Amino acid sequence: TGAEFRGLREDGSIFPIDIMISRIEIAGDDYAIGIIRDDSERAEIRAMKETLELTNVRLARTQDVGGLGWWESDQRQKRMIWSAMIPQILGVSETIAPSFKVIADLCVSADKDALNAFRSAIIRSPDKRITYRIRRPDGDLRWIEEIVSQEPDQRLLGVVRDVTKQKRLEQRLKVESVTDPLTGMLNRRQFNRVLKARYAKFKRYGSNCFLVMYDFDHFKSINDRHGHAMGDEVLKKAAVLVNSQLRPYDHAYRLGGEEFAVILTGLEARDACAFAERIRESIETASFELDGKTIRATVSLGISRFRQSDRTFDAVMLRADEALYSSKARSRNTITLAE
After folding, report:
1. Catalytic residue from among 233, 258, 259, 339
2. What mean pLDDT value characterizes the chain?
3. Please, what's the largest Cα pairwise distance for the chain?
4. By the 8 A CB rule, do 276 and 265 touch?
5. What are phi and psi of 39, to 5 degrees?
6. Is 258 a catalytic residue?
7. Cβ neighbours of residue 67 closer than 8 Å, sequence gap 6 or more
């Protein structure tokens, strides 16, 4: 039999004692043999083991909460293992055999070459990171971030994380940074960026473009008579009408208030004027409805393009703006081309 006690040393410190007693018979007489051992070292090892087990449990819990998975690949034995979180991230059965092929088969075609190149370069360039998309068996598209490091004995260790929420947030913020929240059109900042790029291309290659600017006639009257909600409805529906007239590579912009612009490429003057006329007519003939009220609206438009004498990219904007106000001064609901 055995028992554990605590002993007290002369210096006052307490230490664990392991006492074991065994019964033996010698020449017909019973004897007891006791073994008393300082159990400090074994107690420390046991405490360390318990701490390690608790740490592993906490680590596993942290990985589950954080959505982290890991895999380990032995390059010599061509063997791979992974944590239970990996199948959850991939959306596959827990019984599936771990392999890079499982991940590669789920990777979307647009990212597959980059993922294969990443896998091939791991040995030569360890400690790498890659982000790619997978299409899970249930059809859900997910963004995956993977970090790989090379361990001793030709082993690779990878940490995998689902970063879909982060990517969607980044994409939403990116869209919001360049779009107008009311109409969904690109905003003034993006307009300046694109117009500046078009100007540089014009100066270098002679590739011109047309700028169509328009704003609503008597828009203040719409807000005053029918309310700002109706004014917003006019701007939103008109934006839909304008966007429906655009080619895939043309874009419309809200510059501010009721002032808008469209940048057109690869057109002659008559084509730009025809486009502007379609915008004018579609808005003039549209009905704008809100809370049982129906109103009409019109726009005035100005058109211009770059000139060799232009010193800055916004010179074309000044001419288009002058042409627009010329339309307003004449009769409104019309188009003026600045040659």
Report:
1. 258
2. 87
3. 134
4. no
5. -100, 20
6. yes
7. 85, 89, 161, 162
